[in-house]
Amino acid sequence: MSARILSGSEAAKRLLAGVTAKVAGLEKLGHRVGLATVRVGEHGPSAVYVRAKHAAAAAVGMTSFDVVLPAGIPPSKLQEEIMALNLDPAVDGIVVQLPLPEWLDTARTLELIAPDKDADGLHPANLGRLMLGRATVTPATPTGILALLNYYQIETARQLAVMVGRSHLVGRPLALMLGAKGTDATVCSAHSRTPELDQVTRKADLLIVAAGRPGLIGARHIKPGATVIDVGINRVDGRLVGDVDFATACEVAGAITPVPGGVGPMTVASLLANTVGLAEQSTR
Question: What are the residue numbers of the active site?
Answer without folding.
Answer: 53, 97, 120
